[in-house]
Amino acid sequence: MSFGDPNNPYGQQPPQGQPGHPQQAPQGVPPQYGYPQQPPQGAQPQYGYPQPPQQTPPPYGAYPPPGMTGMPGSGMPPLAHWGQRFGAYLLDALIIAGPMYALGFIDLAASSDPANAGPGVFFIIGWVYAMGMAIFQLYKEGTTGQTIGKKVLGISVRREADGAFLGFGMAFVRKLAHILDGIPCYIGFLWPLWDEKKQTFADKVCNTVVIQVPKG
Fold first, then answer.
1. How confident is the model over 110-141, as pLDDT tens digits?
2. Could you give the residue ranges of the DSSP H alpha helices within the chain?
3. pTM (predicted TM-score)
4. DSSP structural state of residue 191
5. 215: pLDDT confidence band, cut at 50, 70 and 90?
6. Residue 205 phi/psi, 5° resolution?
7. For residues 184 and 186, what is the distance between their CA atoms, to the nearest angstrom?
């Protein structure tokens, strides 16, 4: 039986490309229609390839996304309680005024007549220090949300609307607004004890809140 005999089932091979016979893609040739394609390494997935959802992080200084366990306000971190605020205030007062009074006592001890002694050199140096430290603390509160005392206690002053820092000017206005807290028998300083947002009168006027942040 010859090679070309049609009765010989082994005599000829079906030509490539006939129906019913799968074809293999040649080496080095990109797969065409009929061959499954895979996206190249490092390329962005195109239409037809599922893409994982991406979450945009909150802008610097803004509150974290809603869903945190905390106090009133969507996305607002936990608010500082009254004890934290009072502790930070005492620490800041000690840092600012402590050295001034200590230097003043040195003047009194060195005076021959302490009862009638006026401000001496050491007291003046202490007063200059106190003024400089007070301005520095105010600057830090406006630009970072924290004085030294607030940083130690883990609290920070922010704008209520977006969680941003106040800036030096608004921090100075807030400091002046604390006068309102002291007018009615200092009740404004105690207001955070029962207020829903734990705000003093100055916080309400300036639209600020004090939140808890990591210490240090």
1. 777 766 667 788 889 999 999 999 999 999 99
2. 82-110, 121-144, 148-153, 168-182, 187-190, 201-206
3. 0.64
4. G
5. confident
6. -65, -40
7. 5
Residue for token digits 């037809």? Answer: 48
Return the amino acid letter for 189. F
Q: What is the dihedral of CA 68, 72, 76, 80, to 10 degrees?
A: -100
Q: Which of 153, 133, 134, 167 is nearest to 210 (CA)?
A: 153
For residue 209, what are the β-bridge partners? 158
Amino acid identity of residue 76, one-letter, is M
The CA dihedral of 155, 156, 158, 162, to the nearest 10 degrees, is -70
Tokens 């040195």 locate to: 106
Looking at residue 126, its amino acid is G
- Alpha-carbon distance of 126 to 133, in angstroms, equals 10
Residues in the chain: 216
Residue 12 has phi, psi (to 5 degrees) of -145, 150
**What is the distance between the alpha carbons of residues 215 and 174, in angstroms, rounded to a whole number?**
23
Amino acid at 45: P
Q: Model confidence over 152-189: pLDDT tens digits? A: 999 999 999 989 999 999 999 999 999 999 988 899 99
pLDDT band for position 77 (cuts 50, 70, 90): confident
Phi, psi of 211 (to 5 degrees): -115, 165
